[in-house]
Write a structure and sequence with these properties.
Blueprint: H1 22-38, H2 41-46, H3 55-64, H4 82-95, H5 101-112, H6 120-128, E1 134-137, E2 153-156, E3 162-172, E4 179-187, E5 193-201, E6 207-213, E7 219-230, E8 235-237, H7 242-278, E9 280-281, E10 284-285, H8 290-315, H9 321-350, H10 360-371, H11 378-389
Helix pairs in contact: 1-4, 4-7, 5-6, 5-7, 7-8, 7-9, 7-10, 8-9, 9-10, 9-11
Length: 391
């Protein structure tokens, strides 16, 4: 990521060095080369893949090491930090790459924490090899983005296994997943209730999957669980830890989506600037009209402000929990508002052609809108931020 966050030392005094390391430059270049050589968004959009996944691309991601980026070294991964993943997602945003990377990377991070998960090692190995795609099933009809508002229940039977009942909605990247990490409330023997995370194969008996496309053309799914049997060994995160793990997952998802939005905004600005230079009105390039160049300048300033907020969010991720939540929500408020301004103006400066399905600028705007509704919208992040300010 141009100027992407790359701290040179561990979190100590919250002063981070955002220059790129040599490894991060190589990572950024690998994504840029993939977009330039192997990913033509408009051609691929005209021939959409079933459920949004192209097997050749997924194999390529595995070969490039992207799927192992945030898996700990002791599990055979690269042990990359969140700053490295943010760099990857900024370049993905710049190229409008449609692939279930976020869900799988988030799931790998959670599975790596699941010491009691029986298939932990084999699932992580399969993820890194590009042989498994896991989606995170958190949201429910009444949760309103709160990962701890869970009505789905897992009852413990006499053998210690679970019976899963409930529904999950808008499971991002769920259409192409072959397994899900599902949050469910478990009533324990001592009468206490907690939120656990269970590993559920997509072909489990009693699991209903409804696949569909979102505003940006990407794929999601709704899940229905009707007395789904889950072996005891498929408990990934225990009820005592579920809430904190889910809270952390939402923060990680948000900051990676913020980085993706940053790349999308910068690409939209570049495309719009090029359009103004080449499109002519009254025998003059549009770039000679001051009112248009002022709007383009404001778009650039807005995106740069968003970049500084992404840095702020990343720098707070190793801090205290309350400060982390507050910084991530502040970042997302700024990024969502910036995305609306930059994306909307990019379409407007293209005129009517900006609304055409064949024009890529409209797809950048749709992606920015979709990001603004993923893992928390503007209202949710504003509410969380103001609530934490008062504590």
């Amino acid at each position: 990521m141009s100027g992407a966050p790359a701290p040179q030392r561990k979190y100590e005094d919250r002063h981070l060095d955002f220059s790129l390391t040599e490894e991060q430059r190589l990572l950024r270049d690998s994504v840029s080369r993939f977009v330039a050589d192997d990913y033509d968004f408009q051609a691929l959009h005209a021939r959409p893949a079933e459920n949004g996944l192209r097997a050749d691309h997924w194999r390529k991601f595995a070969e490039l090491g992207w799927l192992a980026l945030t898996v700990p070294e002791e599990d055979g991964g690269l042990g990359g930090r969140l700053e490295d993943a943010a760099l990857l997602f900024e370049e993905i945003g710049r190229g409008l790459v449609d692939a279930p990377l976020l869900a799988t990377m988030l799931s790998a991070t959670i599975i790596a924490q699941g010491a009691g998960f029986a298939d932990r090692a084999s699932v992580l190995e399969a993820i890194m090899a590009g042989q498994r795609r896991i989606a995170l099933a958190l949201e429910e009809a009444g949760s309103r983005y709160d990962p701890t508002a869970v009505a789905t229940r897992a009852a413990i039977n006499g053998s210690g296994d679970y019976r899963l009942q409930g529904r999950k909605v808008v499971v991002l990247d769920g259409a192409s997943a072959d397994a899900f990490l599902v949050s469910a409330r478990i009533d324990e023997a001592d009468g206490r209730s907690g939120i656990a995370i269970l590993f559920v194969p997509a072909d489990a008996d009693g699991l209903e999957i409804r696949r569909y496309r979102l505003i940006d053309g990407r794929h999601a799914a709704d899940l229905g669980f009707e007395d789904v049997h889950i072996p005891q060994g498929n408990l990934v995160v225990a009820p005592s830890q579920g809430s904190s793990v889910l809270r952390e997952a939402v923060n990680r998802a948000s900051i990676l989506l913020a980085a993706e939005a940053l790349g999308a905004m910068e690409a939209a600005i570049e495309i719009t600037a090029d359009y103004l230079r080449t499109r002519r009105q009254f025998r003059r390039p549009l770039s000679e009209f001051q009112v248009l160049t002022h709007r383009l300048s404001n778009m650039f300033v807005t995106a740069e402000n968003a970049r500084s907020m992404v840095y702020r969010g990343l720098s707070a991720m190793n801090g205290p929990v309350e400060e982390r939540d507050k910084a991530i929500s502040a970042t997302m408020v700024a990024v969502i508002q910036a995305g609306e301004y930059v994306g909307g103006n990019a379409v407007q400066l293209h005129g009517g052609v900006g609304m055409a399905e064949e024009n890529v600028i409209g797809h950048f705007y749709k992606r920015l809108r979709a990001i603004g509704k993923s893992y928390g919208d503007l209202h949710w992040h504003m509410s969380r931020y103001t609530r934490l300010l008062q504590t």
